[in-house]
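Open question from group meeting: does this chain pack into something compact, or does most of it stay loose? Before anyone orders reagents, we agreed to write out a predicted structure and look at it together. Recording both the input and the output here so the notebook holds the full record.
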Amino acid sequence: MLINPYVEIPLRALFAYLALLLFTRVNGREQISQLTYFEYVVGITIGSIAATLTTTLEDPFWPGLLGMAVWTILPILTGWLVLKSVPIRKIIEGEPIVVVQNGKIDEEALTRQRTNFDDFMLMLRKKDIFNISDVEYAIFERNGTLSVQKKSQLNPVTPADLNLSTPYRGLPTTLVQDGVIIDNRLQEVSLSKDWLLQKLQAEHGVSDISQVSIAQLDTSGNLYVDLLNDEPEHK
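Structure tokens returned:
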């Protein structure tokens, strides 16, 4: 039975979209900067199949969906092999390449990476390094990013270098978000709603919790509050 293309195309798009959403969730989350070139190509291929399923009406939908599923499952299997086997990991993902060691540039390593000095200096400048003599080690990671270790004498002084103790600073706890009190977060820090409402009223003049955009409590006991539609201070 023929279906009106103006009906079939939206239906195909909907099913392809839902399938693509499901398959990407199954594949897991990974930042774009962490993708290998092969993973990037696989992602484009899966997206191309979804687009073809949507608009190529002469091709049956479900076999195409099966093909997209296969393209999704194969990277999962490959990822499992990479996780379990070091030799396979080296073959598929490669190894980090040291291009600067003990302050000396390895020109052959740069050549293997197909990277010229101009591109290498650009990568260093992005890390606020303008002088190669400041670099102790530089490593091209498997995802193409450059990791750099400066020479130790150029590192900033830390409290540990001076044998100074520092107070603990953990993550702040969000107690209010979009005008709603987050009860389980209050319980985590052993505080009550009454304490929070009194604190908001006394220190920030908040009479209605819906006025609060976000309220966070840091590990020192300081409460940061941002109100909805408040005007920024001009200095």
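Observations to bring back to the group:
The chain has a mean pLDDT of 84.
Strands lie at 97-101, 104-105, 135-140, 146-150, 173-177, 180-181, 212-217, 223-227.
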